[in-house]
Amino acid sequence: MSERREFLAELPIFAGLGDTAVDAVARLTKEYTFEEGAVVAYQRDVVNRLYIVKEGRLFARTIDNNGIPRDTKSFFPGDYFRDEWLFIPGVHSATVKGAEAGRLYIIEGPDFVRLLSDFPSIIDELAPSEENGVRYGLSDAAWNEAQKLKLKHKMRASSAGALLQDETLELFTRRSRWFLLGTLLPPALLVMVAAVLLVTIPSATPVQSLLRITLPILLTLIGMIAFVLRLIDFREDYFIITNRHLTHHEFELRRFRIHLIKIPINRIQTVEILKPSLLANLFNIGTARVTTAAVTGAVLFDNIDNPGAVRDILQRLMGHHKELESAQTQAAIRQSIEQHFGVEPQLTPADAVEPGPVVAAPREQRFSGLRRRFGWRVVDGNTITYRRSFFVLFKRIMLPLLGYVALGVWVGVGLGFNIPTQIVLSVLGVLGLANSLWFIWQLEDWRNDIFQLTDRFVIDVDRMPFGFGESRRQAAITNIQNVDASRPGFLATLFNYGFVTIDTAGAQTDIVFEYIPNPELVQSDIFHRIDESRRQQRLRDEGNRREEYALLLDVYRQAMEQERIPQRTPTGIPNDLEDL
Prior knowledge:
The protein is of the alpha+beta class. Among the domains are: 2-155, Jelly Rolls, CATH 2.60.120; 179-235; 362-529, no CATH class. Helices cover 45% and strands 27% of the residues. The chain is built from 15 helices and 26 strands. Strands 1, 2, 4, 5, 6, 8 and 18 form a seven-stranded antiparallel sheet that branches. Strands 11-12-13-14-24-25-26 form a seven-stranded antiparallel sheet, sandwiched between helices. Strands 19-20-21-22-23 form a five-stranded antiparallel sheet, sandwiched between helices. Strand 25 (497-504) and strand 26 (511-517) form a beta hairpin. Helix 1 crosses helix 2.
């Protein structure tokens, strides 16, 4: 462990890290050995890790589509390649082999991102710099991805913070400020009219004097309220693009209701840019119309600055998604064939690393027991348990709390009017016990009503306290058609709670998570499980096909070795052609 730590601390990429951070990175690092000629990575395979040469030498070669070698490069001890793979999965651009036997250090990307998410201060220590011609810290590409992690960490406390652990923020934008200016112009004009009326209305009679005062005040008040409401409307309407989803967060001012549309990137079909007027082209304002294969249909990113950026980002993400799918398929097929034929792995794990002490993130160190028992979102393995908002709890325990206040008043009144202490205490004991039982009942009734999300089902459990009854509804993840999140009303919008409606296929009743805090995050959790379920199902289906392919290759090889398959391509030249 000490050798690994000292080696990592000397690398330029980790030169700015403190001792604690280097120790944490060293615990994530795994060591492997390789032999001369061993293939460390295949061209066009998927990768989400950082390779660091500890000993020996690696040789990388890129082959183009015509089978011609293009780029070659050697990697010596201390060299590493493509640190942006720590943050986002990529595709190997070359086949990397062992030119000499040696050792590798490998850091898995998800583990590294999890470390930075728990301790975001480490990101600043990885900032790129240059001294005496030597580059330190992350590369520019990796630094840009690290900055997205910082922005994501800052957004967690906001209404836009419903991003999952493995999501990176690509774009966050609101509507154009020119659009805001246009919406604020009418209330501003109303205030200006009020000022003009204050000057122009005569005050010769009492009625005119009253009108001269009340009308401008009324118009000013209406204008200011409209001004503030439109500011709130502008702030709460925004668009988010991550590496996995695009999100339209819309605030309906008339109904004071928030509606959220979230679409997976892999369901996007087309992106169209609309600039309908001369002013729109002049100020580069327009609408990005995203057509999807989801139930929602088309999603509009309307009245935004530089709508072409939305198209460019989505096209890049869609292309990257297809590239990763192809790379993952290639890697999975190779793995299946190697397993079928019993091929030994090219990289051999070195001595097992003893795990260091598990350091909990600062936010997880305190009140973990209470959070598990009363928290609104509790993660336990593959199961996430949600509870209703604390405002629902407050509503239920409000009367028992008032009961305690009434008992306190009773004690004061009883002692003040010289009522015998024994009677006061007796009444206090009987009513206090009854009120406490009522309080505990309401608390348990709130705690027992839960919503659960597993890797297979969404479950709505309505349970009476102390085992007096229970009703349960559930739907399979595979049957979910759409997930809608909303925050209806002023209080729900202000305190960030609402409804998550889960539309399911078939005759079974749709499931609604009611009065749930942060419904956007719950919606993201469900979409994540849907994506994961579909991915696992696709892997199972493809795995079965790959086993068949491997078996087919095995049978074909056996037939070729036994010379049972006739040759299909002629090798000789016909005599008549020879005569020519």
